[in-house]
C-alpha cells in the first residue's frame, strides 16, 4: 500500500484534507495529513485561542516536522497545497518522495508575480511592520482572497470549518534561503496545479514555476484548472482536481521522462 502524505498550507490545517483522505483511502492509499506545529486541533478552537508562539513559527520548523512524518516510509507520495506545495517541491528535489503534486504552490526561489491580488495579499501577510504578530484570518478576507469563487454563504461555512490563523514568518521564509530549490537538478515526478481565479497564487505564477524546471530527464507537468480559487482543494469540483492528481501519481512511475503544460481544464 502506497503511503500518501498531504501537506496543508497557511491558514489551514489537516481538516482541509478530509475529503481527499476519503477519496484516496478508498483507492487503496495509506493516507496521513500531519499538522504543522501549532496547527493541531479544530480550526474554530485555534482561531478563538491562537496558540502561544504562533507568530514565531518559521518554515524550517514546518519542513522538519513534515520530514519526520516522511522518515521511515518507503517511496511515499506527497500532495501539498500553497506553502504545502512548496514543501512538496522541496521534498521532490531532495529525493524524499517518489512523486509529488503541488497545488497552487508558493513558488520557490523568490519568484513573484505582478498580479494585483498576489502583490496585495503577499504584502498584507509578510508586512515587516507587523513583526512577529500572527495574521488573524477573518471571514471577509477568507472569502475575498482565499475562496473568492464561492458565494458569501458558502465561504462563511468553509471559513468556519477549515480556516486558521498563521505566522507571517512562514511566508517570509518562503522568499528566502529556506524556500530555494535547484530547479536545474533531477527531481522526482512533479505535477504543478494552478487555479485560474486564484487571488493568492495566480495560475501564470504556477506556470512560471513549472517553466523554471530545466532537467529534461525529470517528469514535470503543469495543469491549470479554469474557474478555481486558492481554495481549489475544497471548492466545487475538487474531485476533478483529486482525480487529476491520482492519474498523475499512478502514471508517473511508468511515464516517459517529459515536461508538459496543458491548457485550462
From TrEMBL:
Residues 4-243 form the AB hydrolase-1 domain. It holds the Pfam family Abhydrolase_6. It comes from the Bacteria. Transmembrane segments: none annotated. InterPro entries: AB_hydrolase_1, AB_hydrolase_fold, Carboxylesterase_BioH. This is AB hydrolase-1 domain-containing protein.
